[in-house]
């Protein structure tokens, strides 16, 4: 598991507990982070929504420097699957 994925799991796990649905962040060239009601973990399981971004964009989302909606609108964040679940995930990051 890459250091980027490890850091993402550590940052997202406390926020993700009780998340309603399943989501996966694919960090290009690094791996994937899976989120469900039990928290976040490194996994590439099937999910309600898959979000794909570069390492730089993903780190910006985590730090709050990148707005999820703007990243999506400018093509830096790709969303595949349930848009309502993606919106819940955006609220979790904010």
Characterize the structure shown:
The longest helix is centred in the first third of the chain and has 14 residues, at 3-16. The protein has a 5-stranded mixed sheet with strand order 3-2-1-4-5. It has 94 residues and is an alpha+beta fold. The protein is built from 4 helices and 5 strands. It starts with a helix and ends with a helix. The model has no long low-confidence stretch (mean pLDDT 93).
Please describe the structure with a list of short key phrases separated by commas or semicolons.
94 residues; globular; SCP2_sterol-bd_dom; alpha+beta; Nonspecific Lipid-transfer Protein, Chain A; SCP2 sterol-binding domain-containing protein; SCP2_sterol-bd_dom_sf
